[in-house]
Amino acid sequence: KPAAKTAAKTTRSRREPPRLSSPTKILFPDIRATKQDVFDYCSAVMDHLLPEIIGRPLSIIRCPSGTAKACFFQKHHTAGLELVSSVRLKEESGGSGEYLVVEDEASLLELVQFNSLEFHPWGSHAAKPDIADRVVFDLDPGPDVPFAEVKQAARDIRKLLTQMELQSFLRVTGGKGLHVVVPLNPGCDWDLTRRFAHGFADTLANTEPDRFVATATKSRRNRRIFIDYLRNGRGATAVASYSLRARDRAPVAMPITWESLGKLKRADAFTIRDVPATLKRRRKDPWAGIDRIKQNLARWAET
Length: 303
Ligand code: ATP
Ligand code: MN
Ligand code: MN
Description:
single chain, alpha+beta, Alpha-Beta Plaits, 6-stranded mixed beta sheet, 5-stranded antiparallel beta sheet, 7 helices, 13 strands, binds manganese (II) ion, DNA ligase (ATP)
């Protein structure tokens, strides 16, 4: 049994989930998926989704009137949340703020009651916010890049990481691109993590400037893939595996095996409608054992 699953079971709270108001409200108008559908989806994938966000400072995307209307990104705890915990953390901009932390199933479902569609955790835990335990290479293709090239980029990055004796895992974002995720255990401070990710992206862009860019400037992308290393800083987030995306067809950010990358057609191939059944059918978690891998960036610290 995957470790993550066991963790979710043992931390599962007995607290009652909140009552859902407006269950028939349409949140994904193109597929007529309701707030109840979102609640049912999150309940169905709870054993997979909860371990990805539990105990981490969390940002959410809330769409109170559905994905066709305004949605907003929320980092901080707000009035009305009774089950969701918080942690007071230093802000990058100075001062401090109360960040959202989900500790159990009931609090995750309370966020659904508040019309949260997307979950975006930090790469660190609330108890140790300054220690990164994941590096995320966020592959953002320019508008003219075929998906096959994004797939090849992910494979190439994996190969380079393997040469550095770092195992990596793959997630389709539910949007346009892929995330290559490197677990760190024990974790590393954010300064080292950011320098590593930035250096890795710069090296790629310098070696193959026709394929990759490592600067956020939009105009330089077009036919290239932006290696978004900026996910790797204190306070930065990346979408959680199994989170819905507030986009057409309600796609899901889905971990996949490297072996199944070949037949993947697009980054939003998995949706609210098929993921629960896919998880039941699946024999193995593609990220099984990710939190037991002992590797980190210490040996690259000097470079
Ligand atoms: P795609 O494959 O379409 O790029 P993605 O999830 O990687 O999907 P990005 O736009 O590349 O989307 O964003 C990467 C991450 O940056 C997001 O998953 C999210 O956690 C974070 N992010 C996105 N928008 C904001 C925002 N407005 N404020 C802060 N962080 C954000
Ligand atoms: Mn991206
Ligand atoms: Mn990005």
